[in-house]
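Two proteins follow. First one:
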Amino acid sequence: MRRHPANYNTKQSEAVLACLAKHKDEYITAAQIGEHFQKSGDPVSRTTIYRQLERLVQEGRARKYTFDGTQGACFRYAEQPENEQDFYHLKCEGCGGIFHLKCDEVDHVSRHIFETHAFQVNDSKTVFYGKCNMCLPK
């Protein structure tokens, strides 16, 4: 049986990475990636998608986020893995949208918590819940 090296890129791996890159400013689930392939007429099994996503996360080519335990993991394309910054997140309780938050004011709060309370906040796992501008008027 022929074995491939650990960094061997398969057609499915490249397709999953291309899908993430196409949606690089969004958080995308494995189910949404599956729908993307289904619509394109090139269906890929959910097991294959999960396996490829986990591999891309291990390689630093994608990032994995779990927010509140009520929904599955979301993934995001890691444009520059070695320089990828962690961000705080905003999650809309209306539409479920997830948004990056890079804000100096919140950074000050994080720094205060560290300096005053000797506790380091994990930016990438910090989520603020509320309603986005589209859901607010509803």
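Second one, unrelated to the first:
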Amino acid sequence: MMMAHPLPSPKPRINLTSARVAQGFGSVIAVIGTSAFSPKSCGKSPGEKKGQVRNKRKPYPIVKNRVDKG
């Protein structure tokens, strides 16, 4: 799968070193693509979709705890 693209001066190698594989890895990813998702936007919420009904919060009665000073 990996092919070396050496300069013309050195003689070709059959066994690739890890450094040569790392150098060519970017071209491999460019050809086959990646399974990673595209990055999410930062700091801005996407908001609600058009036509989506908002749910109102359920109203609860206000409870006040009072302490009798007697």
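SUMMARY FIELD: Helices lie at 18-32. The radius of gyration is 31 Å.
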